[in-house]
Design goal:
By secondary structure, the protein is an alpha/beta fold. The chain has helices at about 1-20, 35-40, 40-45, 105-120, 135-145, 150, 175-180, 220-235, 255-275; strands at about 20-30, 45-55, 60-65, 85-90, 125-135, 165, 205-210, 240-245. The protein is built from 9 helices and 8 strands. An 8-stranded mixed sheet has the order 1-2-4-3-5-6-7-8, with helices on both faces. Helix 4 (about 105-120) crosses helix 5. The protein is globular and about 50 Å long.
Length: about 280
């Protein structure tokens, strides 16, 4: 009987999500008007799209930063995250070589700040804001979560983030930033632009996901594994690492989306039950 009740609950939830209407507001500037007027590249590049369930309240939000090595790519709402009962924010940010670090990191922080300030207007829950992204996008989400200074500019503590879910992100200094510094991509470095430089005990929940260590890009699994080890040595109990065996750097994203969705649903449920 319990199994039947549970099955009916799941079916009803699926039907409800399928019937729910969603809307997308596009090309919203996340910097203030004065900043946009002073910088043509910011004005043209620094926008976001928000996909959200209409006439709903208290939903979670995923901020999604696209990949592309900090040199290419564009904002998007991943199809795997649509019609799931939560909002998704796709962020566009400035790219190298038109700008260099920390410009695109500052963009990521500004976009997160916009979501914190505005999500309640759409019906979202300010306590259920998650950060995610693939590759370079995961790097951006991770560095602004670990280096508190970027969000501090907007009076946001990273502990206000409900969770960080990183898809194959760099935790050493990103290879494009190393290129800007004259360092080749196979020469690792750790400086102020490396998330691993800011390991600590207290962070929001962090889920690190990579592809197969033998198929990943430039040791991406190993650097995430080292990051996790250093977090644990600093008494961090909120971090985990999944390796998706059989998937390379680009191919790991699709099988990672269900893990992201499960993480959002699990953490959201816990936050709602303990508020």
């Amino acid at each position: 009987m319990k199994k039947l009740v549970f099955l009916l609950f799941v079916v009803n939830a699926i039907i409800a999500n399928a019937q729910q209407q969603y809307k997308t507001d596009k090309n919203i500037h996340y910097y203030d008007e004065n900043t946009n007027n002073q910088d043509a590249y910011i004005n043209s590049q620094c926008t976001l799209d928000i996909y959200f369930p209409e006439n709903q309240k208290d939903f979670a939000t995923i901020i999604w930063f696209h990949g592309g090595g900090l040199t290419k790519g564009e904002k998007k709402i991943p199809k795997a995250l649509m019609n799931k009962g939560f909002a998704v924010v796709g962020v566009e940010y400035r790219l190298s070589p038109k700008v260099s670090a920390p410009s695109y990191i500052e963009d990521a922080a500004a976009a997160v700040s916009w979501v914190f300030k505005n999500i309640e207007k759409y019906g979202g829950n300010k306590k259920l804001i998650f950060i995610s992204g693939h590759s370079a996008g995961a790097y951006l989400g991770t560095i602004i979560t670990m280096d508190k200074s970027y969000l501090a500019k907007y009076n946001i503590d990273p502990m206000e983030i409900a969770g960080l879910i990183s898809f194959s992100g760099q935790v050493i200094t990103h290879f494009t930033i190393r290129k800007e510094q004259g360092i080749k991509s196979t020469q690792p470095s750790i400086d102020k632009y490396a998330p691993i430089n800011f390991v600590r005990a207290e962070t929001p929940p962090i889920l690190l996901i990579t592809g197969d260590r033998e198929m990943e890009l430039l040791g991406r699994y190993e650097e995430n594994a080292y990051f996790l080890r250093m977090m644990k040595l600093n008494n961090n109990k909120n971090s985990r690492l999944f390796e998706l065996q059989g998937f390379n750097h680009s191919g790991m994203a699709e099988p990672a989306f269900p893990l992201l969705i499960n993480e959002v649903e699990t953490i959201s449920k816990n936050i709602r039950e303990n508020k």
